[in-house]
Amino acid sequence: MLTIVLLVLIGALSAILGSLVGIGGGIIIVPTLVYLGVDNDILHGITPQIAIGTSSVILIVTGLSSTLGYLKTKQVDVKNGSIFLFGLLPGSLIGSILSRYLTLESFNLYFGIFLIFVSILLMVRNNIKPLKIFNKPKYEKTYVDGTGKTFHYSVPPVVAFIATLFIGVLTGLFGIGGGALMTPLMLIVFRFPPHVAVGTSMMMIFFSSVMSSAGHIALGHVAWIYSIVLIISSYFGAKLGVKINHSIKSDTVVTLLRTVMLIMGIYLIIKSFL
User: Distance (Å, rounded) from C-alpha 131 to C-alpha 171?
Assistant: First the structure.
């Protein structure tokens, strides 16, 4: 009974936070499953690989549920966002295959460093002005949001492919969906408006999670019994996160999230050396 309650809380909370700020929630699911399974043996049969694979499967539901919600409010740039899939999808598959070589110690170290990097990125993302270096007329895209406002931004295909291929590898390797990096990438490099970046990021998370999950399922890295509970709670959590997105300042949530991630990252790095 305790296991089910914990899984429901993990799924719902990660999906609410993930869909609210466009990061998917895998960055919460993976270390939590490792902590409860490997460190405390509350969840049986969990290894870093199984935590990563299970998270990837859950993020399919979180990504789809959130994307459908953001599509209704026209916060998903499907046409221009699809350009990112050319690098993100193969990268996600490659990363899922590479994850088989992670040991517990290397997982703690690398994931800890990754968490700290993302937390710092979340701290400074509002203070970094969008780069104008790629803002060239031949790459210009337009998007009309739900309020009827037209936005202009640039998406150079080569830059998009290289950046998303790298993010895709990290997505499959750590089971994090890629939103933690995709949202800042769209904001800073490609000059997406924030509300469109969050919605489009969730679409990226859905597709990248489908691809990375295929690799993890083939390798047997999914705990299906735990996944069912997490999927159900994540589905409702994602829907709630989209609703909250329209009524609360996401900056408040980002501040809490980046603080938790920073502490968790430092903890994992220290743990990798003990």
Answer: 24
- Tracing tokens 């159900």 back to the chain, one arrives at 232
The predicted-structure confidence for 53-65, as pLDDT tens digits, reads as follows 999 999 898 889 8
Domain that holds residue 103: 1-272
Predicted TM-score (pTM) of the model is: 0.85
Going by C-alpha positions, the residue among 48, 61, 31, 19 that lies closest to residue 210 is: 61
- Say if residues 22 and 183 touch (Cβ distance below 8 Å): yes
C-alpha–C-alpha distance, residues 112 and 166, integer Å:
18
Query: What is the three-class DSSP state of 143?
Result: strand
Tell me how far apart the alpha carbons of residues 150 and 144 are, in angstroms, rounded to a whole number: 4
Tokens of 89: 């999808």
C-alpha closest to that of 51 among 219, 246, 221: 221
Q: How many Å apart are CA 43 and CA 50, to the nearest integer?
A: 11
Domains identified in the chain, total number: 1
